Structures are given as C-alpha cells and as structure tokens.
Amino acid sequence: MSIVRWVTGAVIFLAVLLLSFANADQVTLRFFGFGSWQAPLIFVVFCAFALGVTLGMLAGVFRVVRVKRELKKTRKALQAYENETAPAAFSSSDVSSSGVSLPAPTDEKTPPPAS
Q1: pTM score, two decimals?
Q2: How far is Cα 64 from Cα 23, in angstroms, rounded to an integer?
Q3: pLDDT by residue, tens only, the chain of 115 residues
Q4: Among positive and negative, which fits the CA dihedral 29, 30, 31, 32?
Q5: Which residue, of 21, 47, 100, 106, is most buried by count of CB atoms within 10 Å of its CB?
C-alpha cells in the first residue's frame, strides 16, 4: 500500500512541476488602485492555495476547540447525573448486620425460559 502512495505522490509532484513550468509567465496583481505586484503565475496560484489551506485549517482548529468544549460539558453533566442517580453501595457490614443471608452460589445451570 505504501508503494501505491509513493507512486501517487510522485505522479502528483511531476504534474505540479510540469504545470509550474508551463505557467511561468509574469502576471500583474492590482490591489484596488493602491498598488500592483508582478510575479510568476505559478507563484500566485501557490500563494492562493497556501492561503486557502491555512484558512481551512484555522477553521478546523476552531471547530475542534468548540467540539472539545462541548464534550467536556457533556462529560461533566453525565458525571453529575451518574452521581445523582447511582444507588448507595452496600458494605459487607451492612448486609451482615441486617440479618439478611444470601443464598450460596450453585453450579447448576438454570434451564432456558419456556417460549
């Protein structure tokens, strides 16, 4: 599987390399009349791609932080609910002092319920 990944990566790299050689022309970016900037087209496309990836990752980080915060709240609420509804645990002294005797475990298997 890793060979397929390396071959796919190499093909994509060569395609991008050939694309960059084919688009080495100079382009002019004009910033709404405030100025202009000349650069190779592939550099401009790469910068736009990098900016998009950065903004996408930043949006993903914000979402992860929000989901983690919600998960923490939910876990606290679940813990509070479990503490509120959990039955009181009996100690062995409680059972023996109440005079209740539990039946001894048996090795007999119980028959399945009749259907």
Answers
A1: 0.47
A2: 37
A3: 688 988 988 898 888 778 878 878 898 988 888 888 899 888 888 888 889 889 989 989 998 999 999 999 999 998 888 888 766 555 555 555 555 555 666 666 666 666 5
A4: negative
A5: 47
Tokens of 113: 């319920």
Sorted by sequence, the CB contacts under 8 Å of residue 36 that are 6+ apart come out as: 28, 29, 30
Residue 115, SS3 per DSSP: coil
7-42 burial, b if ≥16 CB within 10 A, otherwise e? eeeeeeeeeeeeeeeeeeeeeeeeeeeeeeeeeeeb
d(CA 69, CA 77): 13
d(C-alpha 43, C-alpha 25), whole Å: 10
The label of the residue with tokens 């401009």 reads: 44
